């Protein structure tokens, strides 16, 4: 599920600041290559014992990800239910408490990047 109207799409930050800000909120930069990266935050629904991942993609608009001074731009924000063994289901409905937690973290991230 793509999360619209987060205010993050198009925001830019240098890699060092983005990594620090995202890490404060629990995001981890998992996938990355020279020009793009993906940050994930695991959200656990204890009611139904499901895991969900809030994810956002960034792309380098100046430099490469091997430099803390590279400038990255947020491209998209989405959330999915974890599936065994290594997938995400983006079509499943997301429980409201998980969406609320995701929205809160995204707003906090937006404040840190502003």
Automatic annotation (TrEMBL):
A Pfam family recorded for this sequence: YugN
Protein name: YugN-like family protein
